[in-house]
Structures are given as C-alpha cells and as structure tokens.
Amino acid sequence: MSGKPKLHYFNGRGRMESIRWLLAAAGVEFEECFLETKDDLTKLQKDGSLLFQQVPMVEIDGMKMVQSRAISNYIATKYNLYGKDLKERALIDMYVEAVIDLNELLMTHTFQPADKKEQHFATIVDKATNRYFPVYEKVLKDHGQDFLVGNRLSRADVQLLETLLMAEECKPDILVKFPLLQSFKARISNIPTIKKFLQPGSQRKPPLQEKDVPKLMKIFH
C-alpha cells in the first residue's frame, strides 16, 4: 500500500475540494477513488469505512477520516499550515470558518431551483462584498504581511484563495473594490505548490455544472 492519502468522494469539488487544496499546497501527492454509483457509496457504508455513513472520507496515516473540518484540521497540523501557537491557530480558525460560510453559499448555487437562482446570486455578491471581503481586506492591511496570520503560509491563506477564485468564477469583477485581496490572490497563487495545482491537468476540479446534478443525486439520494 502506498503512503499517499487516498480520497473517497465523487469526481467534483464539493466538500473534498478544500482538502485537495490543502494537500496540494503542502506538496503532498494523493490518490482519488471516485464514487460513480449509489452502490459505491453503499459499499463504503456497509464495510464500516464511514463513521457517520457519509463522505468525504480520507485514508491517511492508517486512519479512515471523515468530517471535512476534522480532516482539514489534521492535514493543516501535520503539514505546518496551522500557525506557530494557540493564538495564531485561533485566528486561523476564525478566518477559515468565515471562508467556509461563504464557500457553502458558492457551492450550493448550482443546486438552486431556477426561480431562486437570481436571489441566491444576489445573496452571494452581497455577503462576499459587504460582509466577508472587507474583513479580509482590513486584516491584510492591519497585519501588513504577505499572509493572513503570522509571516508564513497557513490553511487560512489557502482556503481564502480557493474561495476568492470560486467567487470570481461566479462574478469576474467581484474583487474590484479590494486591491489588497487582488494582490493577495496573485501572491498566493504564485507559491510553487499552489501554482502547480492551478495548472490544467492537476487534480483541482472544475466548477459543478447543472448537467452534473442528476448524477450526484443518484449517488447520494
């Protein structure tokens, strides 16, 4: 058995994508086992691989880890992406939890019924530009460093970059009023491991398309 982490999920972003980002940023190669059918999920459930009967699940260091936040915490700690002390970790947690809130909004946009899509899009733009992005802009200004916390890369930087890029997919000019976030995006995107992950052919997944939704529904419902 190889020492690479093995990721069990469907062939798409969802809640596994941030985990892929963290592993890639840490320069860790990983394997993926895609769920293609309901039977694939049922098999994992029946053989006891899924503690709470759901994915994402990551096989790492002899464990079968579930719950995306727990997996991300473990990876961030293992690969020194979680700050140098308890206070830095607290800041990272605060920044990441808010990023996750926005990420959830972005992730669920494709699943909105046609009559709700416009309102959902407006909510994304409003919360991104009025609630979340101004905070990160101020953090970068006040902290005066290349990174959100301390003076080295953390999971907060990685997960913020992931969400900034998702937000731009939704609305290309969404960062127009946030110059520090624009320079942050360029700077973090240029870190070699992350730059590699952003290249075509990497294990980064494309945005979910509406045509993909019925297939996912067959796996999970």
From TrEMBL:
Belongs to the GST superfamily. Alpha family. GO terms for biological process: glutathione metabolic process; xenobiotic metabolic process. GO terms for molecular function: glutathione transferase activity. Keywords: Transferase. Its EC number is 2.5.1.18. It is an enzyme of class 2 (transferase). Residues 85-208 form the GST C-terminal domain. This is glutathione transferase. It holds the Pfam family GST_C_3. Residues 3-83 form the GST N-terminal domain.
